[in-house]
Write a structure and sequence with these properties.
The complex is a heterodimer of chains A (257) and B (334). Chain A is mainly alpha-helical and 257 residues long. Chain A is 81% helix and 0% strand. Chain A is elongated, with a radius of gyration of 19 Å. Chain B is an alpha/beta fold and 334 residues long. Chain B is built from eleven helices and 14 strands. A six-stranded mixed β-sheet of chain B has the order 6-7-8-3-9-10, sandwiched between helices. A four-stranded antiparallel β-sheet of chain B has the order 2-1-4-5, with helices on one face. The longest helix of chain B has 18 residues. Chain B is elongated, with a radius of gyration of 24 Å. Classes of the chains: A mainly alpha (257), B alpha/beta (334). Chains A and B meet through helix 1, helix 5 and helix 11 of A and helix 2, strand 6 and helix 3 of B.
Amino acid sequence: MSDGPTHLYHMTVRDLRNTVRQPSYVLAALIQPVVWLLLFGQLLAPVMEARIVDGSYIIFLTPGIVALTAVFASGWSGMLFVTEMDQGMLNRFLVTPVQRWALIAGRLAQQALVVLAQSVVILVIGVTLGARFPGGVPILLTFFACIALSTVAFASISNVLGLLTRSHQAVVGIAQLMVLPLVFLSEIFVPRHEMPGWMSTIATVNPVNWLVQVGRQSIRDDVAWSHVLDRGFGLLVVAVAGFWLSTLALRVYQRQV
Amino acid sequence: MTFDSTTLGSTAINGTAIEVTDLTKTYPNGVRAVDGISFSVRNGTVFGLLGPSGAGKSTIIKILTTLTRPGSGDVRVAGVDVVREPAQARRRIGCVTQQSGVDPCATSREALTLQGRLYGLNGRLLRNRVDSLLERFALADLADRPARTYSGGMRRRLDVALGLVHEPDVLFLDEPTTGLDPETRTDLWAEIFGMAAVGITVVLSTHYLEEVDELASTLAILDRGKIVAMGSPSQLKREAGGDALRVELVEPPGEGKVRKALAGVEGVGNIVVAGCGLSARVERGAVSAPYLVAALESAGVRVVSLTLSAPTIGDVYLRHAGRLLRSAQEAPSR
């Protein structure tokens, strides 16, 4: 059982290496959030500027785009499992002594690291546009931890879909069906007090919104830590539950091989 | 002909690498893929699974390699119960699945190294083993290029190499030569022979008749989840009714004279006399031929030439699977 961490390390390295080997993917993954930040920022700034309590809209938007990126990027995670099933790679790993949880966790770790890299790019762009993080290192680290947890949570849901349906179309279809509502039922683009009442209510239980709320704390002068830890704990629970469901889905897949 | 595996350090009990008893598997959709199968495989031999698609070959291999669990039955591979101790079993087996399991983005060196690490190998031992496998499977030249640039044959060689990194006791090959060109196929056959020679037990599923005939020391013909025939290829061929015999005679003989003459030769049947020709079925024709000629000559029937043709594994297959195919076709009309 002590093999687990070793297996996790090697599976993560493999996935990261394969990610870096696809330059077009890397390029798209780095440019996309920047495009979003600039497009949404430009589009909505004229309307929103007046409604932001303090600071500019683009700064307000920066942590939101990080959350947007985390949901979008991880929603596709299950596609990789489908591809690996089709190509026989998953079965080849399953006949080795690789720990089953490490097989799942390696993929999640890779997803989380990719999204963290994207987040760094977004935050750097944000800084060049004037964003500041008065809360400093502690809140930024907490924010990063929450980004990783969210990615694990959302990627897990996608993995479950991939492992159970074994179909690219199903993963794409259901991911799209879920991602956009989750995004719009959150404070990514709009401050909470501007959201219609029912949407604001749903946002309370929306994990995407928890991540946005943690991110927003990083650009505030005084961090409401109890607020942050609440949301962080919520994301931890969702991530653990998602991971557990992924391992169950792998077991179901194996029963039907 | 077969190697004494106990001298080769294999740890399986009693020289038996695989012991399968009353194996069944029913899929959730109700298909009974494996229906009460039992067989055993000796150490260091090649065991062939032959049958039409859907006969249950892949399912058996998936159960034996821990990919899926049986409904019931007992499976021991290299002395390990694969159902109760799958983790133990995985260390003892290598598997080359029907689809290539090669990662297109990884180089063959990376793929082999990762595979080795998952079995707990590392350091110089792993490096040396990877190097020697790359050399042995003619992958060394492109070892540091991603596998997506490889030909089909190269990918398949890499698949087999991946199955061997941890030096398994038993190697499973599920239709390993499907889609390969003849040259690559012959190379792979030589490798499979070589593995058995060093004491690795090989289980080979295929639908190429000549492949099992060449390679397998024991062969099971499967149909609809059941073993319909099992034995060595030569044994099965013998059971198919012996060799086909054709004798050309100097002059048309009396049929009664021929029958009387051949009555004393063991294992001759289906005698047909037509003109100057005589045909029959002979068990172990090569052994009987001299006696047969002598018997004819001493009865005054003079022989010009004699040809023997052994039944092919195709005859065997048709006899078993062919009959079953017919009954399968009849079934829906009932």
